[in-house]
Amino acid sequence: MTTLVRTRRHHQALKLSLPPPIPASKFQTPMYSKTLSPAASLGSPVIKNLFELEKIAVLGHGNGGTVYKVFHKGTSSIYALKVLRFNDDSDRVWQQATREAEILKLVDSPFVIRCNSAFYNNGLAVGSDEPGGADLSFVMEYMEGGSLQDLLVSRKTLLEKEISEVAGCVLLGFRYLHDMQIVHGDIKPSNLLVNGEGKVKIADFGVSHVVDGGGVARHLLLESCMGTCAYMSPERFDPERWGGGGDGFAGDVWSLGVVALECHMGRFPLTRAGQRPDWATLMCIMCFRERVEVPETASPEFRSFVERCLEKDWRKRATVDELLEHPFVN
């Protein structure tokens, strides 16, 4: 309990400065039909119809969707609206999106992005059988600071104190998710969002998984190429060498280690400067490089923290609870 209180107090002191979002000039076509109905909700007040929202700006694009900054007409509250669009041949993407909706209905943590409501454009509830071609929308908590990726683009590197704050927030999010048997599976700077108080929250559960009773993340081995390969752990690249694909939880810890080192170095840390982190390059690194090197500019505490995260054998890698007690975080 002392660690949790201390970590939360430290997080309130982190202030991050980011570039402004992309302005929304004109939205050419309407996004929604009158058949919209709420499918799931967390938070209060619950938004019951997307026509309660007014678009203000485009926050970003990617993976077949767009994120908008929106204004709720009834309460004057600001939200982020994530709209995913699907083609008839995008079954795998649709499965990822519906899995994300199901997970977002379950989670409620100050270190995980909150979802107010989820909608299909045909009125079906999230989790129902869905014919091809439908869109899916999430009304999400608005994070004023943007993403950690935005911050790195703006500032290049972070101070170790700031990296410690980021790591502490993510680890507390991991503890909550892992206790619920949820593996995130795609931790990277663009999936870590920052609010106005400087608190970092975990977002984007499109490739997340629920672990079964045997400790194996369902679909994780079959879908090992899902997520962002640059931040994948060795056991996901080479399950045979590392005794299977791991439990998934250790893979989240590896990804956090890569993110922390990237924040320190100002670039992707596993490859040489200017080298593309493609699948073949990363496979060679995982198979032939003994360990990830931490720059000499790092403090002993930071070096130790990263090395415990980036232990190649997932069975020897630090656990979330161990890392929350690590001197670098505390």
TrEMBL record:
Q: Which UniProt keywords apply?
A: ATP-binding, Kinase, Nucleotide-binding, Serine/threonine-protein kinase, Transferase
Has UniProt tagged this entry with the keyword Ribosomal protein? no
UniProt xrefs under PROSITE patterns:
PROTEIN_KINASE_ATP (PS00107), PROTEIN_KINASE_DOM (PS50011), PROTEIN_KINASE_ST (PS00108)
- Residues noted as binding ATP in the record, renumbered to the chain: K82
Which InterPro entries does the record match to this protein? Kinase-like_dom_sf (IPR011009), Prot_kinase_dom (IPR000719), Protein_kinase_ATP_BS (IPR017441), Ser/Thr_kinase_AS (IPR008271), Ser_Thr_kinase (IPR053235)
Molecular functions per Gene Ontology = ATP binding; protein serine/threonine kinase activity
Please give an example of a GO cellular component term from this record: cytoplasm
| Superkingdom to which the source organism belongs | Eukaryota
Q: Residue ranges of the Protein kinase domain? A: 53-329
Q: Does the keyword Transferase apply?
A: yes
Family stated for the protein in its record: Belongs to the protein kinase superfamily.
The identity of this protein, by name, is: Mitogen-activated protein kinase kinase 5
Organism encoding this protein: Morus notabilis
